[in-house]
Amino acid sequence: MNKNRSVLVIGGGLFGSAITVFLARAGLEVILVIDPLEADLRRNLCFSDIIATGKKEIERIQASLIDESRLSEYQEDSLSQSWKKAIRFLLDNRTVPVFFQKEFPDFLEVLNPAVIVATQEEKSIPFLDHSAGLVIGLYPFYDSRAECQLLIEARSNYYVGQIISDDRLQYTEFDFHFFKQPFQQIHAPLEGIFTSLKNIGEPVSVGDPVGSIAGIEIRSPYAGQIWGLLHSGRILNPKQPMALVYEGIPHPGYKHFEFKQIAVAGSVLKEILYYFS
Q1: Bridge pairing between strands 55-58 and 115-118
Q2: What are phi and psi of 96, to 5 degrees?
């Protein structure tokens, strides 16, 4: 592995997954670290969903979880050497290696990435600002120059995807309706294990059951198309989002990243390529 050109992406949600796809498609060596508790509703576009299958493909980019079964293939080596060989094997096969949070930051020194891209909305995977030559964070999830050398706007506003300068950190008032979209979330009314009764992309009418918790059907108060839905087996807390409904005319947009993920991922790719040049 060329440690001087490796990129570590932290977080397997929509932003982290879009960035991973863009970087991998550009031929960069990308390694992904996810928190098993990440649960984005649009899981068909999130590499964090790899926890359910061990493998995941998004827009023709393959990812594979590095777990104990894969590491056991190199059991005669030290753990650090096993990590290196497992990562190298996947990268050579044009596959993004994925680690769980519990192995991080133990392997960070072994990996020694050139760039870290921090994307988590709820920061659960810590790192040090000197862990890489360049650390990029998405604003406002990361808002400190002590954490990141570069901040990129990730909110749905006119500046999405742009570099946050020091003077813009004061500028927090935006017209967020500029990119308003017709989405509604359905929340869990009680605690319990969730069972989905719909699939992402399916149409939904008012009163249709979208899932059940503890045997109680949860019905949609909205009509439209399911764009996001949690996996069956998730333990939900009261008021936790469990489904996302697009209220427009059903169309295949649920299969693709939104403009803001594309804008941010494109900006991250541009800055990394500039850094490597």
Answers
A1: unpaired
A2: -80, 120
Question: Is residue 274 exposed (0-12), middle (13-18) or buried (19+ Cβ within 10 Å)?
Answer: exposed
Query: For residues 101 and 269, what is the distance between their CA atoms, to the nearest angstrom?
Result: 24
Question: What pTM value is reported for the model?
Answer: 0.90
Average pLDDT in the chain: 87
Q: How are beta strands 55-58 and 61-65 bridged, if at all?
A: antiparallel
Give the ranges where 9-103 is alpha helix by DSSP (H).
14-25, 68-71, 79-92
| Beta-ladder partners of 244 | 185, 228
Q: How many angstroms separate the Cα of 210 from the Cα of each of 199, 224, 235, 238, 249?
A: 9, 12, 16, 16, 18
Q: Which two tokens stand for residue 89?
A: 């094997």
> Higher confidence at residue 56 or residue 144?
56
First-residue to last-residue Cα distance in the chain? 18
**Confidence tier at 146 by pLDDT (50, 70, 90):** confident
Block residue for tokens 């996947």: 90
pLDDT confidence of residue 2: 46
Helices (H), 26-139: 68-71, 79-92, 108-111
Q: 60's torsion region: left (phi>0), alpha (psi -120 to 50) or beta?
A: left
What are the chain's domains?
3-172+259-276 (3.40.50), 182-254 (2.40.50.100)
The continuous run of DSSP H or E covering 269 comes out as helix 259-276
Predicted pLDDT of residue 178: 60
Instruction: Quickly state the pLDDT bin for 256 (edges 50, 70, 90).
Output: very high
H or E element at residue 265: helix 259-276
On whether the CB atoms of residues 33 and 136 are closer than 8 A, the answer is: no
